[in-house]
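User: Here's a chain of 61 residues. Predict its fold as tokens.
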Amino acid sequence: MKPSHEGHPLRSPVGGAMTGIIRESCNAAVRLWLWAHGQAVLDLSSDRAAYEYVPGSGGQL
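Assistant: Prediction complete.
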């Protein structure tokens, strides 16, 4: 996934309070492959995909 910018900050719940921050973008490029039993069954790409990133979650962009 290749976002065009860091995304917009949005508040998110942490321990019942809205103190967390996630970043959201509706302008990311993505390519998706879906495989079943060693065979590609889906190959999609878009330059207008959406994503949410939670800092500190261990995910990578």
